[in-house]
Amino acid sequence: MLLISFALIALAISGHLLITRASMGFGYTLGIRKRGWHLLAITHAIIGVTVPILLIIYVGLRGPAMLRGGAWTNVPLLWLVYMAICVAAVAVGAIVNYLRHRERVPAVFRSNHTMTRNAVTELGRIPAPLTLSGKLARISGNENFRVDFRTVDVTIPRLPESLDGLSILHLTDLHFHGTPDRTFFEWAAQICDEQKPDLVALTGDIADDLTLLEWLPTTLGRLTRISRNENFRVDFRTVDVTIPRLPESLDGLSILHLTDLHFHG
Questions:
Q1: Each residue of 176-188: b (16+ CB within 10 Å) or e?
Q2: What is the model's pLDDT at position 238?
Q3: Are 138 and 169 in contact (CB under 8 A)?
Q4: What residue ranges do the domains of the chain occupy?
Q5: Are β-strands 146-154 and 168-172 bridged in parallel, bridged antiparallel, or unpaired?
Q6: Which pLDDT does position 234 carry in this prediction?
Q7: Cβ neighbours around 222 below 10 Å, total
Q8: Which residues of the chain are modeled with pLDDT < 50?
Q9: Cross-strand pairs, 202
């Protein structure tokens, strides 16, 4: 019975952490401003750590003392309900993970290869400043400076023959914030550029610190892919804007924005 109590409390704690992580992930999708996001992250961190401690103390060691051979009938109803929800979350998570694992290689995949590169080894230095975050990044085992370059070859039904062999580089969530430093992203961009993709798709967040947008010319700037510009009765609109607090080094930066092309013959 004691072993079952240990297992159930461990499952409840695991489920609590899963729920906390899922809640934090949902909060991220709301587009909250930076201060609000920091408050949300701190709140989730406190809840994530505090609830398991309270569970162990007031359910496992005191009160019903389940970790000391106590009876589950003595556990307060609110704790029982929350523990049941947490255990259910573990079960649901296990099922979802199994389904993802079983179907993680879609039928359209012809090949799926991942190449891992180590910036520290190739640059001969740790590409991070000696700040607090830079020192934390240096902790052994966190793999902050290892990058997986994944190459996927797919077969797309009804794809026009002229597009056979088209290569697309997909970059997302770079989050320039100082650690890793600029040289890390220059190194990664160089590796991407060596693949000579036909198109570059940049999605997700680029910079957490607006002043670090000055990194763009030497990082993403080298990935420009515009082969030709053919004007068939198309109006090309040029807009000149002023962006507050834009780094001086980016004055004059040009961006080509394509949207709603609607190829229909």
A1: beebbbebbbbbb
A2: 55
A3: no
A4: 2-102, 109-226+235-250
A5: unpaired
A6: 41
A7: 13
A8: 226-236
A9: 171
Q: Are 209 and 241 in contact (CB under 8 A)?
A: no
Give the model's pLDDT for residue 125: 95
**pLDDT given for residue 173 in this prediction:** 87
In single-letter form, the type of residue at position 73 comes to T
**Distances 194 to 111, 113, 169, 191, 223 between C-alpha atoms, Å:** 20, 17, 11, 5, 10
Alpha helices in the chain (DSSP H): 2-28, 34-55, 77-102, 119-123, 132-137, 182-194
CA dist., res. 106 & res. 246, Å (int): 43
Backbone angles phi, psi at 210, to 5 degrees: -60, -35
The tens digit of pLDDT for each residue in 152-191 reads 998 888 888 888 889 999 998 899 999 999 999 999 999 9
The predicted structure's pLDDT at residue 232: 37
| CA atoms lying within 13 Å on the CB side of residue 217 | 9
Q: Which two tokens stand for residue 4?
A: 């079952």
